[in-house]
Here is the input.
Amino acid sequence: MNNSGNFSRRDFIVSTAALAATATLGGHAQAATALQYKPEADAKLRILRWKRFVQGDEDLWMANTKKFTEQTGVEVRVDNEGWEDVRPKAAVAASVGTGPDIVLGWFDDPQQYPDKLVDVSDVATYLGGKHGGWYDVCRKYGMHSGKWIALPLGVVGNALVYRESHVKAAGFEAIPKDTAGFLKLCQALKAKGTPCGFALGKAVGDGNNWAHWLLWSHGGMLVDGKGKVVVNSPETWAALEYAKQLYATFVPGTLSWQDPSNNKAFLDGQISLTANGISVYYAAKNSKEPKLQEMARDIQHAHFPVGSSGKSTELMQITQMMVFKYCKYPNAAKAYLQFMMEPEQYNPWMEAAIGYVSQPLKAYESNPIWTSDPKHTVYRDAASLMLDNGHAGPLGTASAASMADYIVLDMVAEAASGSRTPKEAAARAAQRAARYYKA
Here is the structure.
């Protein structure tokens, strides 16, 4: 679904979910936000954002955009693109100097072209001071050379999504807390004919997230604290040997899975365990099909197990709003960023999407969406729990380019599938990373 249009000239029909979310805050969502930035005369904005996996997210985003237009008179066009398409479109815009004014991008993409982006330190400082401060990982993602080059919108939380009855039928009361036990669970699920499945294709979120967890949980990393490439290591080889054993328990086809693939496989009953945001549960819970409603009652969420590192090593997908310098109306763009992050808009948006995107500002931890259903709560702590994708090295052009090039995910896929041995896959990853991390 690709929604675009001029929201000062036409009405947007807000879904039932959106209206319900607005109502839960006692009408506060209708209050006008006191803007710190005065939009330029006759300002117009074009926004590029990722296509929703949860309908309530898109409905409330568009409703909030309509509110912004009504309050300011600024015409806003919103284009929704597939997750895998946002990154290259943003990179092209940065290169040619024309395109969307604001892009909702992924991970540390802004670090690839920091000189092409508007300094939004004033917006970030204002919001942080007003709403409990930014989580450390959000500060790291949003800042470059001491200034904010992007505004973290939130974290698309990633967790294990599983069928509780199937896990119990396989002989486990819950998801094991360690990687050895987790492998045994996956093997038992396979034996029961209720296998797991994790994305190994070019999946921006689901593939990258679980592949980095696998590497880091065994003590491996792409680079060390100084940015030296160290991925070709015994720790990485151990992680890739583990990946081979885990892959043997997967449903067929995961090598080509992109972000929507495991959602579909889970809801179709092909798999009983995967790594995903809350969108699988959302789809089942809000379905009109009795079979999916029954599945929703059986769905549970859990954090990833802890490996030899002895600590949580999860990667989750941060999304950031960046304003390009070619934008003709930077004040209007900053006003839009502030508006969308204020509680009158942000709280109902989180609720409508049942916590699909978790907060980057600490004050929003208290949103009732995290406790209204215990199955939501795992996703609440995404920003406080996650590591950044540059781990253990610095974020910057090299980390962003390595992520965009799918180096870690490709390495895991090659070793897991047997197209390369673990040592061959690690050596190839090291060669690829060295192109970006130059000594």
